[in-house]
């Protein structure tokens, strides 16, 4: 036994992020001190991404782009361009139901105050929701009309998850789980050699797991659900996943969970499938190799892709994330 060799460390770190909690658990063969340094580094990276791309922070690059709307192009870096191109890809994937210029609609809907905008309010704002007015050239971006606002809610969090996974891999970590507000990325297996188990919440019964997904190797898992932010008014449920073509919450599904090679891809596909609805959403996931998914409809039906039953257990007694 080498007494000078540090013991493998199972390290867990939690920190506030994007209005919720981030959790990262990993095994570091270099010992506890090295694991603590790595944890601080990945927290800084996650916070950097939040600060850079949050539309709620006036100093963010996203806010700067929004202030420049209608006034010509703004020079942006490669990372910003990458996220904007991903958002445009999601616009295409969802047949326009996701739109990165949906930010202006977020001002009309107030889910904390449970305020539903009038039809007239939405009609006045919808002309400012148009991804075709987002001009993206190498090194610059422009929003075509004054008043337009970008919102990268469909890609930013998942990008942060994958960036942290990349940092861990670069440090030699090959066993980890990263969970940012329900969006997950795994590396390898657990420290004991068993597969990671990720619980999928039941949208009809908060706090109860509907599925447990077993991840035998690295993967990304993302969920789009109407239970994250919403309210019921006059018997109608309103939630934050807006269909950009109508300005109203998307209908037909309560949640979509996707397993894909990365959290970034899983998040894009979960968002697109949710907005497309049960039939088109399931067809989209079935068409993607290496992707599995679970969709819960508004009537409580559970739709699974063909290979999902090989990695998921229905209504488990326990599920861990």
How would you describe what is shown here?
- This protein is α+β, with helices and mostly antiparallel strands.
- It folds into two domains: 61-143, Orthogonal Bundle (T-fold); 156-314, ApbE-like domains (T-fold).
- It is 30% helix and 28% strand.
- It has eight helices and 18 strands.
- It has helices spanning 32-53, 61-67, 78-93, 103-108, 119-125, 156-170, 263-276, 278-286; strands at 9-17, 20-28, 74-75, 134-137, 140-143, 176-180, 183-187, 196-201, 209-215, 219-225, 230-233, 236-239, 242-243, 248-249, 253-260, 292-297, 302-304, 312-314.
- The strands form five sheets. The chain has an eight-stranded antiparallel sheet with strand order 1-2-6-7-10-15-16-17, covered by helices on one side.
- A hairpin with a 2-residue loop joins strand 1 (9-17) and strand 2 (20-28).
- Helix 3 (78-93) runs parallel beside helix 7 and helix 6 (156-170) runs antiparallel to helix 7 (263-276).
List the helices and strands and how they pair.
Elements (H helix, E strand, L loop, with lengths): L8 E9 L2 E9 L3 H22 L7 H7 L6 E2 L2 H16 L9 H6 L10 H7 L8 E4 L2 E4 L12 H15 L5 E5 L2 E5 L8 E6 L7 E7 L3 E7 L4 E4 L2 E4 L2 E2 L4 E2 L3 E8 L2 H14 L1 H9 L5 E6 L4 E3 L7 E3 L7
Antiparallel strand pairs: 1-2, 2-6, 3-5, 4-5, 6-7, 7-10, 8-9, 9-18, 10-15, 11-12, 13-14, 15-16, 16-17
Helix pairs in contact: 1-6, 3-7, 6-7, 7-8
């Amino acid at each position: 036994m080498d007494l000078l060799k540090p013991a493998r460390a199972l390290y867990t770190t939690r920190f506030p992020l994007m209005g919720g909690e981030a959790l990262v658990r990993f095994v570091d063969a270099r010992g506890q001190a090295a694991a603590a340094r790595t944890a601080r580094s990945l927290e800084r990276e996650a916070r950097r991404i939040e600060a850079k791309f949050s539309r709620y922070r006036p100093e963010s690059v996203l806010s700067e782009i929004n202030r420049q709307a209608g006034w010509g192009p703004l020079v942006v870096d490669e990372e910003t361009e990458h996220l904007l191109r991903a958002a445009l890809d999601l616009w295409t994937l969802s047949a326009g139901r996701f739109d990165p210029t949906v930010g202006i609609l977020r001002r009309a809907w107030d889910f904390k105050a449970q305020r539903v905008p009038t039809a007239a309010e939405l009609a006045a704002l919808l002309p400012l929701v148009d991804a075709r007015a987002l001009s993206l050239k190498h090194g610059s971006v422009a929003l075509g009309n004054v008043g337009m606002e970008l919102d990268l809610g469909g890609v930013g969090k998942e990008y942060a998850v994958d960036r942290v996974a990349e940092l861990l891999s670069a440090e030699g970590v090959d066993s980890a789980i990263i969970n940012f507000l329900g969006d997950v990325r795994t590396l390898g297996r657990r420290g004991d050699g068993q597969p990671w188990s990720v619980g999928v919440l039941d949208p009809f019964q908060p706090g109860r797991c509907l599925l447990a997904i077993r991840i035998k190797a690295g993967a990304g898992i993302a969920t789009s659900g109407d239970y994250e932010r919403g309210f019921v008014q006059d018997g109608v449920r309103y939630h934050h996943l807006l269909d950009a073509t109508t300005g109203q919450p998307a209908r037909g599904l309560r949640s979509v969970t996707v397993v894909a090679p990365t959290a970034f891809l899983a998040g894009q596909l979960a968002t697109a499938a949710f907005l497309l609805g049960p039939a088109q959403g399931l067809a989209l996931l079935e068409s993607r190799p290496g992707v599995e998914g679970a969709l819960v409809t508004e009537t409580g039906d559970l739709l699974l892709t063909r290979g999902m039953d090989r990695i998921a257990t229905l209504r488990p007694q326990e599920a861990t994330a």
